[in-house]
Structures are given as structure tokens and as C-alpha cells.
Amino acid sequence: MTPQIERVAIMGAGPGGVAGAAVLARRGLDVHLFNRRPERIAAIKEAGGVDIEGDLGEEFVSFTCVTTNVEEALAGRQLVMCFTPANGQRLMAELAAPHITPGMVFVLASGSAGSLEVAGVFAASGLDVRDDVLLGETLTLPQSARMTGPARLRITLASKVRLAAFPACNNERLYAALADVISYRPSPNVLDTGINNVNFIIHPGPMLLNYAAVERAEGHLSLMNEGMTEGVLRCMDALDAEKMQLSRQLGLEPIGIDDLYRELGSGPHIYRAKGEPFGLRDRIWQRYIHEDASYGTVMLSSLGRQLGVPMPVSDAINTLLSIVEQTDFYVRGRTVESLGLSHMNAAQMSRYVYDGEPVRATA
């Protein structure tokens, strides 16, 4: 019988991480919040928690511990949830590895197939993800949030999020462990949760095609709607079609971005309908490009090359964004090499993400 999760560590105090900590603490769980930079959590630490508003109402939620000390953060925890952007997942795994004890659950929210990289970090520390630690990832955040003050945030609850373990033979164990922690829907494996992240479709291509508008507005743009013209949507849909062909090659059920948004409790109206559904024009986050190209479209292109699936739209987005941003996203991005898949065909990848057994390179 899987013990009920009562003690949780949240790694990463961005809006998603703080919201995750608040949701779980509000349910009565013992929550530690960790962040490397003290300035990010100074106000939360001083207050002992956060004020929340939004879908859960308005109230103050306290945390047991708010710290920059990773050993303190992970001490006695049953579950560790990493809410950092994809480019911080490896570092968080390296910080956590010395403090992971047998039986712990470690979840990336969201994963972007990062659990494959984390598994390599854990293996280098002598941890076996098939037995010692239960490793998994979600497709997207269990809830979205916006910081409205140094220790205040507005929370929007998502619908059920796709969840998978690595290896996938541990899926049922992971679902049992997280049954009372997050609202999830089963996913076949971490390649499914990885390549179906909607941000990879909704951000890099539209950002590229709106680059001049973003520069003229000094970064202020409502990407949803202002940026989603008919031509931009055609590019986005072409990229989505490439991603679905990649899913088919991997033996996964293809799902388009419109259906993914419906699955997440929203819908395609937020980018296909004219108007301003969010009522705001934000400064565009660099993450829309630097995370979602490096760890999204670059990964899609890399998998496509490995598996013989043409990805011309994804390739073009990566190449042109590398030029305009003066950053080689292929060099810094998530690829089959960093995921440990570089010598595998589609069948071998599917088998590896199911059983976690290393696949030997063939001549």
C-alpha cells in the first residue's frame, strides 16, 4: 500500500512553484518552499506564507519552511516537486540528488521530457529510478498563477494534467502516490508529456512572426489575439501537424493543440478568437523564446532528425530565432543527446521510456 503524501518540498519559487506550495499547504500538507536566490523568497519568508486570491478564494496560507538551504528543504520529505523552468531542471536534480532517500517521489511540473535528463543525474549519484526513487513529470503546471505582490498571488486551477513516470512501468505507482496531491490524467510515457507541451506550439513561432511588433512596443504585446493573425495561426498549425506526425512515429496517440487546450480546461478561443480574453498586454517573457525554443522546438527538431520525420517548420523557427536572438538554440537546447536517446530508433525509445533499461548502441 502506498503511504499517503503528507510532507512535500517545492523547488522553485516562481509563480507556479509558490502556487503549488500554497495549494498543497491549504490542503493541510506540511510544505517546505526552496529557492536558490534569497531575494525571490524574502517577502514570503518574512510573512511565513502567502496571501492568495483567485479560484481558491482569498486567504493567507502558511508554509512550514521557506529556505535557500536544499538540505533543510528536503529533510524528511516524501515528495519533491520541481517547478523551475526547463533550463533549471538539471541543476535542481543535482542539488537534490545527495538528499534523496529511498522511497521519495520526485516530479517535474512541467517536465518537457526533462525526467530523462534527471534520471541521468540521479544515476550518476547512484540512484536507480526504477527502484530507489519514483520519478515523473506533468505535461503542464497543475495550476497557473500570477504574482500580484511580493507575497501575494492569484491562482487559476487547471483541469486534469497529463502525468507519466519514467520509466512508465512505474506509472501506476506514481498515480497511487499522487492521487491526493494533484488532479491528473494518465499519460503513456514521458515522451507524450514532453512533446505535447502546448507552449512549444503557441510561443516560439508566433513570437518569431511578431518579432518586429514586439521590438516596436518595447516588449509589450498581447500574444494571444494581437499576435495571432491568420498567417501566424497557419504557421502554428503547420508546426502542430509536424508534432503530431512525430507522435505517430513514436507510437503515441496524436493530439492537436486545440484539443490539448480543451483537455486543460480552456479552449482554442483564447488564441483563435479576436479580442483580449485576458484583458492585459504583458511585457513578453524571454522564456517564450529562450525556454520554449531551447527545450521545445529544438527537442522536436532533434527527435525528428533522429526518427526520420521531416520538421521543416520547427527547423526554420529554430534557425531564425537563433539569428535574431544571437543565440544558438541548437547548442543550448534539449536534444536526443541530452535526453540519452541519440542511438535509438522509435521502437527502442518506446521500450526505454517504458522499462528504463539502457539500450546499447548498434553498429
Question: Can you give me a brief rundown of this structure?
Answer:
Helices cover 42% and strands 16% of the residues. The protein is built from 18 helices and twelve strands.
Give a written overview of the molecule.
With 363 residues, the protein is α/β, with parallel strands linked by helices. It folds into two domains: 189 residues, Rossmann fold (3-Layer(aba) Sandwich); 157 residues, N-(1-d-carboxylethyl)-l-norvaline Dehydrogenase, domain 2. Strands 5-2-1-6-7-8-11-12 form an eight-stranded mixed β-sheet. A four-stranded mixed β-sheet has the order 4-3-10-9. A hairpin with a 2-residue loop joins strand 9 and strand 10. It is globular. The protein starts with 6 loop residues before the first strand and ends in an 8-residue tail after the last helix.
Count of beta strands: 12
Shape: globular
CATH class of the largest domain reads Alpha Beta
Radius of gyration: 20 Å
Order of helices and strands: EHEHEEEHEHEHEEEEHEHHHHHHHHHHHH
- Count of helices? 18
Percentage of residues assigned to helices: 40-55%
Any idea of the CATH topology of the largest domain?
A: Rossmann fold
Mean residue pLDDT: 93
Low-confidence stretches: none
CATH architecture label of the largest domain = 3-Layer(aba) Sandwich
Query: Which strand order do you get reading across the main beta sheet?
Result: 5-2-1-6-7-8-11-12
Going by CATH, the homologous superfamily of the largest domain would be NAD(P)-binding Rossmann-like Domain
**Mind summarizing the main beta sheet?**
8 strands, mixed
Q: What amount of the residues lies in strands?
A: 15-25%
Q: Which class do the helix and strand fractions yield?
A: alpha/beta
